[in-house]
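User: I'm designing a mutation panel for EamA domain-containing protein and want to avoid disrupting the core. Could you give me a predicted structure to guide residue selection? Please restate the sequence first so the numbering is unambiguous.

Assistant: Good idea. Sequence first, for numbering, then the predicted structure tokens:
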Amino acid sequence: MPTRDRLIAAFVAVLWGLNFPAIHLSLEQFPPFFLVALRFALLAIPTVLLVPRPTAPWRWIGLYGLGFGVLQFVFLYWAMSSGMPTGLASLVLQSSAPFTVLLAGVLLRERITARQGAGILLAVVGLAGIAAHRAGLAGGATLVPVLLTLCGGLGWAVGNLGNRRAMQAQPGEPFRLLLWMSVVPPLPLLALSLVVEGPAEIAGSFQGLGSTQGLLALGGLFFTVVVATLVGTGLWTALMGRHPSSTVAPFSMLVPVVGIGASWLLLRERTSPTELAWGALVLAGVLLGSTRRRQAEPTTSAVAIAATPSPRPVSPSPSVVVAETLTGAPTAAESAASASARR
């Protein structure tokens, strides 16, 4: 992976880490469920009008949108509006990685290797440590936001499975699939907002948009939709098209580092050393499970065979980066080499 692409991958991780303080600013103005509906509506409307529909089956697009768009962000925004520290949210949401492995093993019958199992165990121990620490604070009241964030991670894992099945059915459309996934959340989330938050609270959130708080909220929403989603995901998609997912995926481990650092710097939010220590264990577990053992150098004949021209492989969607690497699925480069060897 050349230095330029490493810098791009790190840049995307920075954008995604900054997305958590941006969400925090938006939640200062808008109720959580309505904010999620608004976020995806801003993507869904131009998508329906301008972007051709992907050819993947609707049931997998719907599952992708339900898990990634609805469940993940409903629980994440609910947790953050209920007191979940912004930086800690960026860390606990990494629970999507072990959840993805477990769901893929149970529902898709994908084999879990010993290395992946060890990574899951480490991540679970770290998450349990954070939960236990939070349970001891304020009589356990601060545990609820952590549990909600874990539910968000589970929702992301469900979306990963839908994305994976959609890409298996029709590869080559990752960015279009991402955009059309955004068509699923707005209507059910708007209905949820109307029932839970009510029309009065929704209407009240549009008052004072010209104030400092309102402008910061709009800026946070713009960053989430345009910068983090479109720019960040677009760059990540390009990287996944040029390199194996196992090479690119570990850069996502920078996201909670940036999220915690940005929350401390911009929001003056402090994370306890105990939680940081448990969080480091979570990251170690996810990193262990998402990297492959280095394989032996190929022989001269194997290199000659692999050098035979073949069609460029299609990369997986950026939203299944961790799913592709953790579930043991072959990367694009591995699949291409295998196909060439068979010829």
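For picking mutation sites, this is relevant: The first helix runs from residue 3 to 27. The CA atoms of residues 130 and 275 lie 6 Å apart.
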